[in-house]
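Reply to dn_fold:

You asked what the input looked like. This is it:
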Amino acid sequence: MTTSPLYAVIDLGSNSFHMLITRLVEDSVQVVDKVKRKVRLASGLDEKNKLDDAAFARGLECLSFFAERLQDIPAENIRIVATATLRIATNSNEFITQANRILGQEISLLSGEQEAEQIYLGVAHTCCSADHRLVIDIGGASTEIIVGNGFEAQKVTSLNMGCVTFNNQFFNNNQLSLDNFHDALSAAKKLLHPIVCDYQTIGWQSVLGGSGTMQALAEILAAQHLPAIISANFLQDIKIQLLSYHEFDAIEIEGLSTERLPVFASGLAILIAIFKCFNIKSLNLSSGALREGLLYEMLPNMRLVNIRQRTVSSLIHRFHIDEQHSARVKNQVEYLFDQITASTTLTKNCSFYLLLNACDLVETGLLVEYKHHQKHGAYIIKHADLPGFTHAERKFLVAVIELYKGKIDLDLLISQTAVEFTAAKTLLLILRVAVILCHRRTDDVLPNYQAIFEKNNITLFLPEQWLLNHPLILDELFQENLHLETLGFTISIEGTS
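and this is what came back:
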């Protein structure tokens, strides 16, 4: 069997250098290696935008490490790009010349617009969201704002503000105060105001971002067992917490890593300014950005099938999951969802489509053995490579796979943050009922029926004759009440002629 070729993407960012190595396995992207080094290149820019010797040396040393991994990868499968700091630096040509020699490959110095376009493509390839998107990326020395539809970026902007450069400009003594935070906020707003009108004219349905500042905020939300949705109110709460400290070293916010501390205040100020200027209410974390944009555009036929579906299809084939049965369960989930939506706050958003992904994967563990197959499946999904899914979405999949039948451990559902808890309970209810109705594993025995959901009870109106012909399914529906009590739900059955 021939091993599939490797692909490598290297991003010389203003804060960190990243290397991503992947290969295609069963038409899905498999990550082989990830390397990240905090080079903080932007912090080495002096007042004349010249990179100092220390930053120069840090960058070249990092690339000498990366060069070792590139030796056995075909040149046509490698993309290496430099971004904002090397656009700004007056001695960037000298750095890139030496870096090319070390890597044995050519570095592409992206313009701000090119970087923004690749960031947008990374989001488009990896995220389940409305096609009309506003995408935000706060880097070390630049901030990219893109509005687009599908795979087309309709307007792109790259602004010369980033968490490292703003930190140097407004927080260079590591001191925090309302004044210096306000100065950073005002400077960001001043840069943003000229572009807002054009973006609002185009419009968007969803807002996404995945850079370090937003990932740090998502980790704070996760520590509080809250969904990974960054709201305007949450940003204000974090600002108040942050400004209760006067020095970076003293900051203690649950979930905020010490690694992120030096540039957190500046990144937060920029993000709050974006929220205010664009009147954003909430933002979802994306699982892709610049590197993913470069990678998926290099790989063959990536625009034809969504990366999430590629990931799910790969798992289906690897673990020999019964696709026909999964499709049967998904059909019942969608039917039940449509039946009860009027009595709930649920909509067909990302949470619903995440549930459909779970339907495909609930029987992953059957390949190991039937006994404990839910725990085996949950373990596999917890540790599998899942391109296109965020960490929070993975936790939701793990919880649903372990809980789709049998006893319900409520802590598992509480611990996931991708879906609000009340919605997660209702989605789990729908799945569990659909699974029971599909226990015969054949399409021609599924009846026409109606469902009503009110006062935490789901009533199924099933044909009397079908109930007589399926006493085991009927008993399982009644027995399900013993488990649903944990969720605060009940099932009622009404026979129809």
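The chain has three domains: 6-109, 113-291, 307-442.
Hope that clears it up.
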